[in-house]
Amino acid sequence: MTLYESCAASHGSDDAAVLQCIASSLEYSISGTTKAVDTVATEIATVVYDLDSLKDGLDIFFLIFAATVMFFMQAGFAMICAGSVQSKNLQNT
């Protein structure tokens, strides 16, 4: 049964009452939908905030990790350079 049929059955031949019944039914369903949309929008905003926080944390972790790797790379290059020098090749001994 459609909305029009149910309103027409309950209000008879009074067109104004049928239209009022249809309008109030639609208004009720729209207000329920609006509340649902607001709830979903709030949840989406929460998820976006959580993802932004995760992104910021991963950026900071990567920066610290890359700096640590570069620090140890410099130490490794220093060891390579120190190990490649032989005493027979030194000028000032």
Could you estimate the helical fraction of the residues in percent?
over 70%
Calculate the mean pLDDT score and round it: 81
Q: Which structural class fits the helix and strand makeup?
A: mainly alpha
Stretches with pLDDT under 50, minimum 5 residues: none
Number of strands: 0
Give the ordered list of helices and strands: HH
Strand content: under 5%
Q: What profile does the largest beta sheet have? A: none
Shape: rod-shaped
- Report how far apart the termini are: 106 Å
Helix count equals: 2
Radius of gyration, taken over Cα atoms and rounded to an integer in Å: 37 Å
How would you summarize what this structure contains?
With 93 residues, this protein is mainly alpha-helical.
Which helices and strands occur, and which strands form pairs?
Elements (H helix, E strand, L loop, with lengths): L2 H9 L3 H69 L10
Helix pairs in contact: 1-2
Can you put this structure into words, describing what you see?
The structure is a single chain. Helices cover 84% and strands 0% of the residues. α1 (3-11) packs antiparallel against α2. The chain is an all-alpha fold. It has two helices and no strands.
